Amino acid sequence: MTGTFTADEMMSVAAARSLTNGAACFVGIGLPSTAANLARRTHAPELVLIYESGTLGAKPDRLPLSIGDGVLADTADSVVSVPEIFNYWLQPGRIDFGFLGGAQIDKFGNINSTIIGGDYADPKVRLPGAGGAPEIAASCREVLVVMRQSTRSFVESVDFISSVGYGTGKGDRERLGLRGRGPVKVITDLGIMEPDPETCELTLTRLSPGADVEQVRAATGWDLAVVPEPAVQQAPSETELRVLRELKATIEGDQA
Amino acid sequence: MARILTLSEAISELVADGDSIALEGFTHLIPVAAGHEIIRQGKRDLTLCRMTPDIVYDQLIGAGCARKLVFSWGGNPGVGSLHRFRDAVQHSWPRPLEIEEHSHAGMANRYAAGASGLPFAILRGYTGTDLPAQTDSIKTVTCPFTGEVLAAVPALNPDVGVVHAQQADREGNVQMWGITGVQKEAVLASKRSLVTVEEIVDELTPRPGAVVLPKWAVTAVAEVPGGAHPSYAQGYSERDNSYYRRWDALSRDRAEFESWLKTEGLAERSAR
């Protein structure tokens, strides 16, 4: 146990711990990138970082500010074109982990990064869009999602399906012909959710230190299923915290 | 054979009102100066194509140059949303913006089909998402060999493809390196092309992994040092991250944007 840490730090550490050494990970910018870079500096030095700009095996010495940051190209095993990264590396299922965030997620792990409210032609808020996520969510062997939890982001059903989790429930991925397993973990600042083996509904399995079940339920827009007596995650170690803070200090501003 | 032109000549000759144009660049080597020249020349009714429309597309949209956007992720990389793009979609300001939305994999394959001279591309994508329902440019095709149903997307063949590169020689052979995204495909898919370069050199130095566009595959080359600013050109300049953050604040407000447009967007040389 260490001194104090924030819920955000716990989230980044928990997300990093979910990545295994030697795996190939397709990394989105923001929280996933922070976690993947933390993992490579702690328990998973051989983690292969792949960014959609075409950098294979990037080993950045600071946090990249975007998926096309020059530090990724400078340190990569290879830089390939964008058609190649999607067609040769992602599509055939060569990538172990897809690491995604989003604006909304529903109880079956479907993600929205397209519009909020209204309809597609007349949205309340227009978001950046799906980018690489639809095929990352479909083709990586497993998907990890990292998002801050609130009733605005964890909703009964998303306003737009930008990328598919478990669709309408168990068996839907198979019916759709999606090749990867789908979102095996959703990691938030309050805990970790995993799909129920029978229903594929996201179920709270672990709590962050200091969070309780009622707090997580209150930050979830559906009637959240919870395993009996969810375990509490191990707090960040001194090393994890130090490395995470050093990493965050490598960039200016509020980039996650 | 590529002609060496000034930026102003090149945009004037190659880009017409109503054209579809692709200013490609993946965080790196974004042809921003060329976009500003399009704003200055007051081009209208353009269909803007790009996988990752960012600040320069926000500026083109806010300046009223665009009728339609064909894209897969429209944001301010590392910062957040594009406010001029949002305002156009949500409030039709300064004019309505039609959108044709894809995933990155879909857009990359559309350019690859365009560069290949094929009518469409196939990919294993979009399945289960709400994207296909919003455009007639995502359909399915059945594999004649296995019966698998795959996504089909039409080739993207812009009237004009514009990219920025590090170097060209005096004959118009172009070389770029680092993250080269979908730039080669965008140039080869387009009917006409313009490459702005950091510098024109006597002789290109061969570099492992570099992309070379031979002079006979490019319509025009213009020497525009710093033409990617605020994005970066590996070996020449760093990304100006503070510009991206400043744009977030400036672009939220229509009046502030219009003031930027008058003082910098329409200034003789690109804002830098």
From TrEMBL, chain A:
Record key words, sorted: Transferase
The keyword Disulfide bond is annotated on this UniProt entry: no
Cross-referenced SUPFAM superfamilies, in alphabetical order? NagB/RpiA/CoA transferase-like
Q: Which InterPro entries match?
A: CoA_trans_fam_I (IPR004165), NagB/RpiA_transferase-like (IPR037171)
Molecular function as annotated in GO: glutaconate CoA-transferase activity
Question: Is the keyword Transferase in the record?
Answer: yes
The source's superkingdom equals Bacteria
Q: What is its EC number?
A: 2.8.3.12
Looking at its record, which EC class is this enzyme? transferase
* Family as reported in the entry's similarity comment: Belongs to the 3-oxoacid CoA-transferase subunit B family.
Descriptive protein name: Glutaconate CoA-transferase subunit B
Whose protein is this, by species? Saccharopolyspora gloriosae
From TrEMBL, chain B:
Provide the GO MF annotations for this entry.
glutaconate CoA-transferase activity
Top EC category: transferase
The record's SUPFAM superfamilies line, in alphabetical order, gives: NagB/RpiA/CoA transferase-like
Cited InterPro entries: CoA_trans_fam_I, NagB/RpiA_transferase-like
Keyword terms, alphabetized: Transferase
Q: Which Pfam families match?
A: CoA_trans
Stated EC number for the protein is: 2.8.3.12
Homology family: Belongs to the 3-oxoacid CoA-transferase subunit B family.
Protein name in the entry: Glutaconate CoA-transferase subunit A
Query: Which species expresses this protein natively?
Result: Saccharopolyspora gloriosae
